[in-house]
Amino acid sequence: MTESLNPAEFERMKNEIVQLHILVDRLNTKQQALTPPKEEPQFSLPERWNGEVGSPDGLLASLDMQFECQPGRFPTARSRVAQLTSLLSGHTQKWAAALYNSKSPACNDYAAFVAALRKTFVPPSSEVGAEARLLKLRQRKRSHRFLAHLRWPLEEAIQNSLRDDPAPPETPAGCLYVPTSCRSEALSWAHSSRLSGHTGFSRTLKFLQRALWWPCMARDIKDYTSACDICARSKTPSHAPVGVLRPLPVPSRPWSHVGLDFVTGLPPVNNLNTVLTVTDRFSKAVHFIALPGLPSARRTAELFLENV
Q1: CA–CA distance from 127 to each of 3, 130, 159, 182 (Å)?
Q2: Residue ranges of the Integrase zinc-binding domain (predicted)?
Q3: Can you give the residue range of the structural domain that contains 93?
Q4: The domain spanning residue 221 has which CATH number?
């Protein structure tokens, strides 16, 4: 026989169940509020690129990964261009600043900015390949077959100039004669190109002698490398350290230390156009001796004893 339920007891249990549901909902809401939002992954900044060494492929690949994993930090193309610009240095940074100051549309288009950067600082693949193939030429294997397969602008210029300035009979076997009109271009390519790296006289000479020749090659290379402004400013001198400069001793009394000098090229007066000055370094007193010209060392000593 089923026991009947008191209505008042039923109402109390119903209210408790409702209160429990409300409490559970509040706990779930509080737990969701305490859960921290999902953070975007952090990336270390890649190395800056100055446009002189290497290529920007590594830098651009790192930025592409950063843009993909952090879309909230770089939502627009302009913000991505700004991030790339902050990782440029040297010539590339100056180029980017000039592009921004000129209000170029590429500053608002990341793909266009990257294309302009590559076009300005990354050489064409054909040029790099030609220089790399020439650098791989081994010494003692001088063959025109190498030059026949190599299509670089210097070879074409040499072949065109050989029509007016043919190779002399003393040209070594296996070497291509360089006419006078192409020698400056050959020296610049062998010494100042991106792959040669401003080598010294000996390395530049050995490099050119592998496939090229012209009379007085060593002298021209020596003059060119000695006059290279970049080498003069950046290369470390190989000579012995110079001596320490020492000031002249300070005299302690008059006429213990003197200085002699000649003033020449003066308008002649009574056939005298030169003045010998004898200066006391202690008192700064000066003797002036008029002369008809520059005297010899013996006569200078005699004039000093006679007048001072």
Answers
A1: 100, 5, 18, 18
A2: 178-236
A3: 57-121
A4: 1.10.340
Q: Let me know whether 226 and 142 are in one domain.
A: yes
How many structural domains compose the chain? Answer: 3
Are residues 131 and 210 located together in one domain of the fold?
yes
CA angle 182, 185, 188 (to 5 degrees): 150
Q: Are residues 115 and 68 in the same domain?
A: yes
Which residues have C-beta within 8 Å of that of residue 258, sequence separation ≥ 6?
A: 278, 279, 280, 281, 308
Task: Give per-residue pLDDT as tens, 263-286.
Answer: 999 999 999 999 999 999 999 999
Q: How far is CA 260 from the centre of its chain?
A: 48
3-state secondary structure of 273: coil
Over the stretch 199-213, which tens digit does the pLDDT of each residue have?
A: 888 889 988 888 899
Q: Are residues 87 and 156 in the same domain?
A: no
Residue 126 in tokens: 């054909």
How far is Cα 7 from Cα 101, in angstroms, rounded to an integer?
84
CA–CA gap between residue 287 and residue 135 (Å, rounded):
68
pLDDT tens per residue, range 84-114: 888 888 888 888 888 778 788 888 888 888 8
Q: Is residue 13 part of a domain?
A: no
Assess if residue 49 is contained within a domain. no
Task: Give the end of a domain, one of 69, 95, 121.
Answer: 121
